[in-house]
Amino acid sequence: MADAEWRRKLVEEYDSGNGPRLGGGLESEDGAGAGDGITTMIVEHSHTEGNAKYEGMRMGDICKDRGQHVVLCLLDMCLEEDLKIEFRSSPKPCPLSSLKDIACSPFTVPGLSDGGAHAKFNPGNFYTTSFITEICRKHSMMDLETAHWKLSKYPAQAAGLLDRGHLAEGMPADIIVYDYENLKILPGHVAHDLPGDDWRRVCRAEGYHYTMVNGKITFEGNECTGATPGKLLRHGSEGATPLHQVPAASRL
Asked: Which of 87, 198, 199, 210 could form a disulfide with 177, with the two C-beta atoms 3.0–4.6 Å apart?
């Protein structure tokens, strides 16, 4: 990264329009297209006093402030921070009409999971809250009842857990109690709670009053009660009632 010849080649490649971009595709000034351009990268966290002022800023603005080509600016900042500086990509634009088509499609099951592969890059767990606050409350793309079905019963059915996902007599009392008007996502933070004191990114929410599993309160707000009444469920195993034993009205 400090080699003069390689730096020259990288700048030349970028200026030719053939340089790589975040998410694939080629670089462009506005960062539009398949992924973000280098200029749209945002400094998430700096480990040096000199670069701390750039936290939250886009590389396109930082390179102008430093009077550098954006590629050289990126390389130098990484070297100055001994490769410990953290970047994040800018939110990608999505037309509300397209978002509504996707969210309301009968084939869309809300969710985000890749087995924890991105635990250091994306908490991934806030989609349930943002689905309610953005899809329902902010943009009125669907009613709350449909959103609840999308977030609970539909994924349970997809996972073969046909006796989960809705409230009915004789079913496990898995219940979320929340304040619809005051529900919001809190700023993310780093938690050192993995084995070996390893870290991950965590994002919590405000407005949830109670989380209940099998009728027992497991969380009051964001505070864990220590109760562990849940159990592991697998498709087709005990706890996943066969379809022919589930009342027709419960399959909807």
From this structure: 210
